[in-house]
User: What shape does this take?
Amino acid sequence: MGTMQDWMKEKEATFKAEHEILVDKLAQGVNGVEWLVAQIVIDKNRLESLDTWLLFLKIHKHNDVRKVMQDALLQNEKKFYRRYRCNWWISVDETLTHLKLQKERDYDWYFDFLNETYKER
Assistant: This one.
């Protein structure tokens, strides 16, 4: 039977691996984001989380959600937080959820978003 320290080490290793994958895929641009979006499975918890994040943005008067999502994909944790006072990890996750929904529901919007976000890259 493992100790709490063993469990924490395992979780820390998992977190670091997920972080490295996320940063690597985001650095790849459109192709990396497409891969990340493909990994998203929409369920009730993801939909509720997205709604909560969108409400948070509204309460904090971040009305240009599209720009917030683009910045989440393009900026690092520190720069994003300085600008929005919002957790980058959560914002990237919610952005990917939103993109998955848009890809399924309105592919033209999704395609335009990715082209606009990565047009200069």
